[in-house]
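task queued by scheduler; priority normal; single chain, no ligands, no partner chains; default sampling; output format set to structure tokens
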Amino acid sequence: MRATLMYKSGDVRVVEVPEPELREATDAIIRVTHACVCGSDLHPYHDLGDTPEGRRMGHEAIGVIEQIGTDVSTLAIGDTVIVPFAWSDGTCAFCQDGVTTSCVHGGFFDGASSATQAEKLLVPQADGTAVKIPAGTDESFMPSLLTLSDVYLTGYHAAIRGEVGPGKTVTVVGDGAVGLSAVLASKQLGAETIILMGRHTARTDLGREFGATHVVAERGEEGVAKVREITGGEGSHVVLEAVGHMPAYEQAYGIIRPGGTISRVGVPQYEDAPVGFGSLFGKNVTLTGGPATVRAYLEAAIPQVLDGTIDPGRVFDRELPLDDIAEAYRLMDDREALKVLIRP
């Protein structure tokens, strides 16, 4: 079968790899029908060192089940399912607490032997991981349903962890697909003022349609000053940081008001960051966020897509076949595309 491998920064190829095989009785194998490139895929695209064996890529998928292990009881061959970016058993203590990305039997797609930018995918812990899409669901809903594997529910997770709600002022740092999803989620949760920090007009225009009340194109100190001006000098109740680089974090603690919450879902490309008196401590700021517990939100989100309450699939502005995956990476890296849908 064909799958996407990255061999070093900028070097993405579609190559032939062995067909996946069931390893455990709890596994399933799906034929991937919809995948995509994620903004976090661009991190290794920028800095992956020489990897002669190649790194498997992709962690978002919809597909049709072709094989199931003997212990899989809630899924059947022929089911169309959404596969989140992390697998989980649904039964361990952490899954029961809703922290499915910390499942004791879990793991993450992408970079391992099982990744989604491919024709087929091995899904460990299939009963706890994959979620069925109602039979007969129209193809037009699939892009939005695909966002439930990661991008929309990552934005939603940021908003939930940040305790976004009615009367709150929310600032979203980053106008990528996750940032725009965070805007949409904040609107759904009733935020009163939603400030989107981004400078790509096509993206911020979509952000306004998703619910942003203000757009701030300035960055750094100028951006912080602009947000403070909008908020009457008080700062934002909640900052949702959807980038993962240090300048975005610095903007976040500059913007946050005393007693506020910073929620980070941009995969941090750093380990050390300010947390002292001048950044967080002095203002009694809460720092939260982390890998989105997508599986905990999925069942509730599917009906919202199907009844038209949300249409997060609008973040997809290009579609390409798997063979053109290298072009998909280039388009996103050059900011010529917001998010590219891939059809294997």
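post-processing summary
- The first helix runs from residue 42 to 47.
- The first strand starts at residue 2 and ends at 8.
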